[in-house]
Design brief:
The chain has about 70 residues and is mostly beta strands. It has no helices and 5 strands. Strands 1-2-3-4-5 form a 5-stranded antiparallel sheet, with no helix packed on it. Strand 2 and strand 3 form a beta hairpin.
């Protein structure tokens, strides 16, 4: 995790940015209210509204899920 010490405040982001690796095959599917991003080892399901992220391993076991809170 890289944290820019020159950026601070409530609008700061602790995102992780990696260079892409074209040798990792993946599938990307876009629906009207969602995206699905899959590799051989992990799947990411993104729902646009209400916003949520769901990560699953290659066996379909839930790893992490988040959901936008009201308000």
């Amino acid at each position: 995790l890289f944290i820019d010490k020159h950026q601070s405040g409530k609008d700061s982001s602790y995102s992780v940015i990696l260079k892409s690796n074209p040798s990792i095959p993946y599938k990307l599917n876009e629906e009207s209210n969602s995206y699905t991003f899959e590799t051989d080892s992990i799947s990411l399901f993104i729902t646009k509204n209400p916003f949520s992220l769901t990560f699953k391993d290659k066996k379909g076991n839930l790893l992490l899920t988040t959901q936008e809170k009201d308000g």
